[in-house]
Amino acid sequence: MRELYPPIEPHASGMLEAGDGHSVYWEECGNPHGKPVVFLHGGPGGGASARHRRLFDPSRYRILLIDQRGCGRSLPHASDPAVDMSANTTWHLVADLELLRQERGIGTWQVFGGSWGSALALAYAQKHPDRVSELVLRGIFTLRRSELEWFYEGPAANIAPDSWAGFIGALPENDRVPGHLIDNYAKLLFDEDPAVHQRAAVAWATWEFSNLTVQPRPDLIEAAQEPLGATAFARIENHYFRHDGWFTPGQLIADAPRLAGIPTVIVQGRYDICTPATTAWDLHQALPHAEFVLLEDAGHAYDEPSILDALITATDTFAERS
């Protein structure tokens, strides 16, 4: 099993002035003359971390990470009730990535994304296919209505009734109506009172973080309890989900054939509750040239052992081919 590369620190970082009042944090690690790769975190609203730098061989990769609008070290932070979310959409994030690529003087780069990051990677690649050298995608999520309803409107409770009880219990009893839970959560998450929105945000994040792995991970549950991070995470996710990611129905799967010329690896855990394997399978049918890795002992998280092994195998292989 391959493991994360040793810890590294950025050799460059800054704030990308993206417009609309947003400053987006970016950092660059590894070999300044290496193969460019951009890491796209999940959520949306999850932010990048020091561990994410370690998915790539620092001797061979020029590694760029970005905190997408409203989260992590980017400003303004979505935990502030006064933040206007109207300029935080998929297509704003796609534009931010293209601006970063240009600002850093990169011609083409590998695009690596998991969970929501896989949706953003697909959206970016479909808009700018000539700028993508390879795609590495994990835990495929395309924000189809069926995917959102599975995890946030009740069906997934059949697998995880214990953690679902906390998610549904944070809503007023009259608002516990399947088909309307995402909308009803918005009323709490965007309430100006911290006592209201932070409690809802922690419940939202705890539901998600409780189901990232096959085996329980107390460290993930603990991370979901941090109120400001949870608030930004939950607000941004809820905002994107209420708008179906600003995609037409099934858009990312339907437009996947545009990527036929891009070497692609799809990594998916068979027991992924958050983003079930049917979406990864549908993407593979639309992208039959892609290498499809379906793992029999994994859920959703990038650092479950077999998922981590498959991801680093993919990045190492692409580096060797280059």
UniProtKB/TrEMBL annotation:
<keyword id="KW-0031">Aminopeptidase</keyword>
<dbReference type="InterPro" id="IPR000073">
    <property type="entry name" value="AB_hydrolase_1"/>
</dbReference>
<dbReference type="InterPro" id="IPR002410">
    <property type="entry name" value="Peptidase_S33"/>
</dbReference>
<dbReference type="Pfam" id="PF00561">
    <property type="entry name" value="Abhydrolase_1"/>
</dbReference>
<dbReference type="InterPro" id="IPR029058">
    <property type="entry name" value="AB_hydrolase_fold"/>
</dbReference>
<keyword id="KW-0378">Hydrolase</keyword>
<protein>
    <recommendedName>
        <fullName>Proline iminopeptidase</fullName>
        <ecNumber>3.4.11.5</ecNumber>
    </recommendedName>
</protein>
<dbReference type="GO" id="GO:0004177">
    <property type="term" value="F:aminopeptidase activity"/>
</dbReference>
<feature type="domain" description="AB hydrolase-1">
    <location>
        <begin position="35"/>
        <end position="300"/>
    </location>
</feature>
<keyword id="KW-0645">Protease</keyword>
<keyword id="KW-0963">Cytoplasm</keyword>
<comment type="similarity">
    <text>Belongs to the peptidase S33 family.</text>
</comment>
<dbReference type="InterPro" id="IPR005944">
    <property type="entry name" value="Pro_iminopeptidase"/>
</dbReference>
